[in-house]
Amino acid sequence: MIKAAHLVKKFGSSTAVNSISFDVKEGENLILLGTSGCGKTTTLRMVNRLTEPDSGTIFLNGTDIRSQQPETLRRGIGYVLQNHGLFPHYTVAENIAIVPRLLKWESSKTGKRADELFEKLNLDPAIKDKYPAALSGGQQQRVGLARSLMVNPPVLLMDEPFGALDNLTRISIRKEFRVLDELVKKTIIMVTHDVQEAFEMGDRICLMDKGEIMQIGTPEDLLFRPANNFVANFLDEQRLQLELKSVLLEEILPGSAKNISVWDQMESLLQVNAYPDDAPGDALTIESLMAAFSKYKKR
Ligand SMILES: Nc1ncnc2c1ncn2[C@@H]1O[C@H](COP(=O)(O)OP(=O)(O)OP(=O)(O)O)[C@@H](O)[C@H]1O
């Protein structure tokens, strides 16, 4: 769906992105991960032509993106920013109607689509007449996402979408977004410097350093088959938690029908320990889960 070939971007004498190439398949969620200044945002902004590369090409469905006017291109590419990017002097309803208005949608169609997204994103319809400053950070981020999804673009670019939220809100909102049907079927490139977030949200992760790609692969590829020392060292600090998040329960306990990570299963077992009366009565315990996980790792 998206193919980036040999992208280079320099700012003065410093090279922000140094000949990188990657593909994103339809419906895939590719995460650009790396420390501050490694070139993630520059890479993302080249996809919707907010930044033009010095050399290299990006193809969208086989067509060079430079063959379209940037404004036309951007109508098919949603863009979600860390600080939500809402216009402060527009109400929520006005903010989310910006692109539909450009496309000359009837106001009834805009209203219907907004209602649908408000329901899916757990937003109270009463906030439609409020200004962004009157909303919580979590609400602002949900409205920012609703705005980017209004005209149902096939591609979504997200730059640190949860970056401005406190840790608890951040964890719960990304859990919610992960299963949101509107997002599940989209082709997404998301920037983050948060390793846990990358592992939770990404089908594949593109780990960058100093404008170059260190490795692109599934979370399991990066963890268990690191391409070099940089990748291994980058993940070391949080390795156990990442492994628990990236391995599925059915991989360590064949026959288990649950398509959830070992981490999620562990969290629900901790919940059961706290509320033993709610226990489902199966034999799985944290100890047996950890034993199965250790055995899986030694395989
Ligand atoms: N408009 C610009 N003018 C000059 N230098 C820039 C510009 N945009 C980015 N850079 C530089 O290019 C490099 C890569 O920046 P970029 O924002 O892509 O990194 P990043 O990985 O997204 O970092 P962060 O997570 O801090 O946003 C940095 O050294 C940055 O200072």
From TrEMBL:
Keyword Transport: yes
Transmembrane regions listed in the UniProt entry: none
Keywords attached to this entry: ATP-binding, Nucleotide-binding, Transport
Pfam families linked to this entry: ABC_tran (PF00005)
GO molecular function: ATP binding; ATP hydrolysis activity
A Gene Ontology BP annotation from the UniProt entry: quaternary ammonium group transport
Domain of life: Bacteria
Alphabetical list of PROSITE patterns matching this protein: ABC_TRANSPORTER_1, ABC_TRANSPORTER_2
ABC transporter domain sequence ranges: 2-235
InterPro entries the UniProt entry points to: AAA+_ATPase, ABC_transporter-like_ATP-bd, ABC_transporter-like_CS, P-loop_NTPase
Statement: the UniProt record of this protein carries the keyword Transport: yes
Cited PANTHER family: OSMOPROTECTANT IMPORT ATP-BINDING PROTEIN OSMV (PTHR43117)
Record-stated family: Belongs to the ABC transporter superfamily.
Name this polypeptide is given: Osmoprotectant transport system ATP-binding protein
Originating species: Pedobacter westerhofensis
